């Protein structure tokens, strides 16, 4: 056998000749070495697999697996308990909201009745009318659980009814304010009308004259009460009226109390409906103790009869 040697960096080549005996010897050596090498490789791989199997069958390893499985089971149980607790909390919240809606309904109906409003305007026992184009629900919304939908519906129901209560309260406060500012009632305790608004015979001259208010006879010193809340704008003498008290009630209304004996208020005082303003007297042009009462709108006297309500 002729063998050519590959040159190195110097570029020179070499050759060698092997006899048949030498070639045969090399083949025998290779055949002897190859099985030994394969055996060593297989033995090493077998040892590695055996160590892995022994590790998996090791009691400590199995115990660790059992602990892992037990921990996962505990996590599942805790998750289940938390879910049940949340469901119970939601159920309790739904119950509270339902009770709150019932209380709001009862309160709303009672307030509507007290305010004398049309039940159709504030109906707390029926669902409000609704409408609008149909919109397809998203897949996420379509899968919402029923109890969540119930909770959302009750929450919006409470919000809506709370808004209604607020509006109703505002209307009632406005009515009460108007009632306080509206000069309706009776300006003295007791007494009776001796002269009405309009044409009459003058009590001093007997000539035809126009009476711009109402005369209410009463005893000297009887309290005169404000017909409505307002601000005192005048206290003093006026020709023919004698000592006079005037109150502005807003909304273009004012009241005048004349022939008084003494004033109990001063200009700028804020007064409440029914508050004592003065006492009955006979000051000015008067034939005896009485109250001359006027109602003015935009500064002009109007007939007070529609504002007078005899006290019970």
Automatic annotation (TrEMBL):
<dbReference type="InterPro" id="IPR011055">
    <property type="entry name" value="Dup_hybrid_motif"/>
</dbReference>
<dbReference type="GO" id="GO:0004222">
    <property type="term" value="F:metalloendopeptidase activity"/>
</dbReference>
<feature type="coiled-coil region">
    <location>
        <begin position="62"/>
        <end position="100"/>
    </location>
</feature>
<dbReference type="InterPro" id="IPR050570">
    <property type="entry name" value="Cell_wall_metabolism_enzyme"/>
</dbReference>
<keyword id="KW-0175">Coiled coil</keyword>
<keyword id="KW-1133">Transmembrane helix</keyword>
<protein>
    <recommendedName>
        <fullName>M23ase beta-sheet core domain-containing protein</fullName>
    </recommendedName>
</protein>
<feature type="domain" description="M23ase beta-sheet core">
    <location>
        <begin position="210"/>
        <end position="304"/>
    </location>
</feature>
<keyword id="KW-0812">Transmembrane</keyword>
<feature type="transmembrane region" description="Helical">
    <location>
        <begin position="23"/>
        <end position="42"/>
    </location>
</feature>
<dbReference type="Pfam" id="PF01551">
    <property type="entry name" value="Peptidase_M23"/>
</dbReference>
<dbReference type="InterPro" id="IPR016047">
    <property type="entry name" value="M23ase_b-sheet_dom"/>
</dbReference>
<keyword id="KW-0472">Membrane</keyword>
């Amino acid at each position: 056998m002729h063998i050519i040697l590959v040159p190195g960096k110097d570029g020179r080549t070499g050759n060698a000749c092997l006899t048949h005996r030498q070639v045969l010897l090399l083949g025998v050596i290779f055949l002897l070495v190859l099985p030994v090498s394969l055996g060593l490789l297989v033995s090493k791989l077998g040892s590695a697999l055996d160590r892995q199997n022994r590790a998996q069958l090791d009691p400590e390893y199995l115990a660790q697996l059992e602990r892992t499985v037990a921990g996962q089971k505990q996590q599942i149980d805790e998750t289940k308990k938390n879910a049940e607790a949340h469901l119970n909390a939601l159920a309790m919240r739904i119950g509270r909201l339902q009770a709150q809606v019932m209380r709001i309904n009862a309160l709303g109906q009672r307030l509507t009745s007290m305010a004398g409003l049309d039940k159709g305007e504030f109906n707390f026992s029926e669902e409000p009318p609704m409408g609008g184009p149909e919109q397809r629900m998203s897949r996420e919304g379509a899968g919402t659980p029923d109890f969540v939908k119930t909770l959302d519906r009750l929450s919006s129901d409470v919000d809506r009814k709370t808004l209604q209560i607020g509006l109703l309260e505002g209307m009632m406060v406005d009515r009460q304010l108007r009632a306080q500012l509206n000069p309706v009632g009776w300006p003295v305790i007791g007494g009776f009308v001796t002269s009405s608004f309009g044409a009459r015979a003058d009590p001093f001259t007997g000539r035809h004259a126009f009476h711009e208010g109402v005369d209410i006879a009463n005893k000297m010193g009887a309290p005169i009460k404000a017909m409505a809340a307002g601000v005192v704008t005048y206290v003093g003498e006026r020709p023919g009226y004698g000592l006079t008290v005037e109150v502005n009630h807003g909304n273009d209304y004012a009241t005048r109390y004349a022939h008084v004996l003494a004033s109990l208020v001063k200009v700028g005082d804020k007064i409440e409906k029914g508050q004592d303003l003065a006492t009955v007297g006979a000051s000015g042009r008067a034939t005896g103790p009485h109250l001359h009462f006027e109602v003015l709108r935009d500064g002009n006297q109007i007939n007070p009869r529609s504002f007078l309500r005899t006290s019970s």
